[in-house]
Predict the 3D structure of the following.
Amino acid sequence: MTARRSRRLFFLVPCLLATVRAAAAPAPPAPGRLGHDVVPTFEAVRLTVDPTQPEFSGTAHVELRVAAPVSTFSFHAEGPVISSLRLQGATGQVSARQSPAGRGLVRVEADRPLASGDYTLDVEFKAPFDPHAVGLYRTRAGADWYAFTQFEATDARRAFPCWDEPSFKIPYQVTVLVPPAAVAVSNTPIESDTPAGALKQVVFKRTPPLPSYLLALAIGPFETVPIPGLSVPGRVVTVKGASGLAGEAARVTPSLVSTLEKYFGRAYPFEKLDLIAVPEYWPGAMENAGAITFADQILLVDPAAGGVAQRRLLIEVTAHELAHMWFGDLVTMAWWDDLWLNESFASWMGDKVTQEAFPDTDVEVRSVEGTQRAMNTDARLTTRAMRQPVEAMDNLLQAADELAYQKGEAVLGMFESWMGPAVFQKGIRDYLAAHEWRNAAAEDLWKALSAASGKDVGHAMGTFLDQPGVPLVTAELLEGGKSVRLTQQRFVRAGAAAPPQLWQVPVAIKYSDGAATQTRTVLLTARTQDVKLDVANPPIVWIHPSAGERGYYRWSEARPLLTTMADQAATRLDRRERVGFVSNLAALLDAGVLHGGDFFRLLGSFASDPEPLVVSAVVTALDEVKVAIVTPEARPAFATYVRRTLGRALERLGPTARPGEPEAVAALRPALLWWVAVEGEDVRLQAYAREVAQAYLSGVGHVDPAVTGAALEIAAATTGDRAFFEAIKKKLETEKVPAERARLFAALGRFRDPRLAEDALGMPGRTFQEGAALTKAMSSSAEGSERVFAWFREHYDELSGRLPPMFLAFLPGSALGQTCSEERLAAVEKFFGDPRRNVAGTDKELAMRAEEVHDCLALRAREGGSAAAYLKAADPR
Ligand SMILES: [Zn+2]
């Protein structure tokens, strides 16, 4: 899955695996978990789905194997109301009753113990479509109704009775009865399509072994666009009228698939590939086998209006989901403990193939910023170990956060560098071959990687997975200038105390004697380790403790070395290293190594870097610390600083696209426009943005699609008046392109006039997610988040009726926004901590947000003065 929040879970379960594979005597299942005495070997699901009706109905036929004599067993069904249940053994029908057992389970009780052997279970049921857009749900697009599914992690049970855990990996056969005009799409090609009374019956081919969470169904009057050039038949599937937006997806998919086939050394594993654009959809995308579902605003790109950011998002999300076809679908995690690995691997692999197939996306360098985000989360005391036993099924997907995606990706990348890419690839191929069409655990992957490399990968990797936090590696040149002392400790913010921890860190050191530059990798296992470096002409004059910025660790060294490196960055450091250097500066500010003034001075020097991604890292670093260390009195001087640094960078690029410019420049421009116009208070640019936005809204003249979104948001946030608000509203009346609508809703979230902001909050979206785009934009400012919080309080019942629980748990974050205020925190804690609203995951979310607020206040108290002094001294006014 690709989470929508970011760009973006423990001790393995050898016991469970042994149970699944050998059916040995199992321990009693944990609450909500299924036993293994009675296991399915095949399930046929037949559903009658008419999306114009509020309910659907169906039957499930399950072939069962009873491994040990029992008289009761359970399966999952949560939502479907079962009207009849029939259990049949070799000797005929077995008298059995069903009763709800809580936690989504249905218990079957037979009148007599079931002897070991084969049985069949037949169930009839009926259910309303799910109101939260998960499970099996319906939605309206234009004048037509459609039905879609979203099952990960535990929502297949909302559509039909099943063994809804990933280790029950069995073949399914799906049949649907649907209105004659509907197109039906599932994981496999259609086997037959025949009239059945007023409906038609579509039988899909039997699937290869799949876990329930990877099944998918889409029904409605779809349009399809072929994807030529695949090793199997492929299509993009859209709602009526949207197939004109499918071209870009059809164009980029074949090279991603063939690059993956080449890496894995095996063909795409399923019989066909459909990419389905879903109008109402919470995740970014979902890797259903052979039937990948996407939020429509990601999959569908308007050839005229889609800018570079949109095209990149499409490629990267598609690459991530396609990587899952092998890693996740062909080989599936045995239990949710390894959800992190499933997502980490797909993120790492997705970025790797994106870089290879579409080098202009520059993912190779851009992924450094993702790693930095994960390290920021991991710097907090409320962070968690990436791998933890998953027992409670409530809000399981909360674990699908920056740690599961970006930390995991970075850790895999670090070990790939340590082992060497070819050896790593061999380990991956061996792992897939050994476990294809079955389940596996992370331990199985470490075994394969260790066998390929002759290194104990599992142990070293475990130090990053099983303990929370990120290491800080300090490098110190020793007397004589031929060796370096490396020291590790947990990275925390200044003043915070964490228990002592040790990692096994592959530290890649880059160093120079002034003439030649060399790189050396050592596995740092002790607290302190001295490393003798090969150097022709001592002393070593500079050292960079994270060559290529490939490591998942923060690094530090004496300030003179840091300053030397900053001064010579453009010639000494590669692009990844420069991006990492800039991001590391913000971390060193947090850790108390750098002061506010030093931070702004060093950062400013990177704003003139010729590499757009380095300038982008400067923007991110400013964004991270702005709220904390720019005090209201320093605000005007900060605006001057922004104009002097980022304003000059924008002057070099120009405010509008130039023919033949690199993609990286087009990608950077919107962020610079926003920063210089809004934070830099550049009134000339504000007027320019308004002009661009109005041209776009009125459809007069050509507008650079890459800057439309930024122009709309700048104009709303600065000169936004009633006339501009009405112009956006008018555009929304006719705009049909999902990504364009999302931009317009985000712009509505930027108005600062209180009356307009209130009106914006009252705007009905085409889907619930459009409203979410608005509140997300609004909550990025302090006043805006106050309004969003008030709106949440007023509309909480409506929200809880529409949002899946995992999204409810994230509301406190939006209610706080980018503020550091004790008062707001207390109010948010009081409202969401109330037992009536405290859904699973809320306490964890509140604890994380509280730590953020306290860190922000501490940083302001410590560095606000130093920052203000520097900014004022540098301000010529
Ligand atoms: Zn994923």
